[in-house]
Write a structure and sequence with these properties.
By secondary structure, the protein is of the alpha+beta class. It has three helices and 13 strands, in the order αββββββαββββββαβ. The strands form four sheets. It has a four-stranded antiparallel β-sheet, covered by helices on one side. A hairpin with a 2-residue loop joins β5 and β6. The longest helix has 22 residues.
Length: about 190
């Protein structure tokens, strides 16, 4: 049995959970999120808790879906109460970021600025808009209630200029460690 799946999800005060079959609509202070769970998994809302159960422990597919369904429902509840955030950094001389009209504009060493449309549920907070040398990065934070959309957009931003291993230039997550390589050495 899934250890994560066995844990009940506590629904905080101020959060409203509506269930119609396998469809859940969760409303909280940060917004409203909807989720469809797999039909093979039983989910019940009772006494300010969401309980996910699995009727067939022998079936490996249902065991896998059990923990996944519980984790997805927990992400929805956490998203509408606290929200999620993804701090990011840009390293590289002259690289910068700015927000214009619902788009993020990145100047990261190409001959043209790269524009990415920001999803409606994601907000961009720019702390340091431009890098200063290779030592002081540009800092910005992506945040929103939907963990999947936030992670997808953060991956798209990082994909514009992933960090390279020699000088470490590029866009990276704040908690990402870039393994550096030694450059070419002159032969003696």
């Amino acid at each position: 049995m899934s250890r994560i799946g066995k844990k009940a999800i506590a629904v905080p005060s101020g959060v409203k959970v509506e269930q119609k079959g396998q469809h859940f609509k969760v409303t909280g202070p940060k917004g409203t999120l909807e989720l469809d769970t797999h039909p093979e998994i039983d989910v019940k809302v009772e006494d300010n808790q969401i309980v996910v159960s699995n009727s067939d422990e022998a079936n490996s597919r249902k065991r896998a879906l059990h923990g996944t369904a519980r984790a997805l429902l927990n992400n929805v509840v956490v998203g509408v109460t606290q929200g999620f955030s993804k701090p990011m950094q840009i390293f590289g001389t002259g690289y910068n970021i700015k927000e214009q009209g619902g788009k993020v504009v990145l100047n990261v060493g190409f001959c043209h600025p790269v524009e990415l449309k920001v999803p409606k549920s994601v907000t961009v907070e720019i702390k340091t808009p431009a890098t200063r040398g290779n030592d002081v990065p540009a800092l910005f934070t992506l945040s929103g209630p939907n963990k999947q959309e936030l992670g997808q957009f953060a991956a798209e931003v990082r994909k514009v200029r992933p960090p390279e291993p020699y000088q470490g230039k590029g866009i990276r997550y704040a908690d990402e460690h870039v393994i550096r390589k030694v450059g070419k050495a002159l032969g003696a």
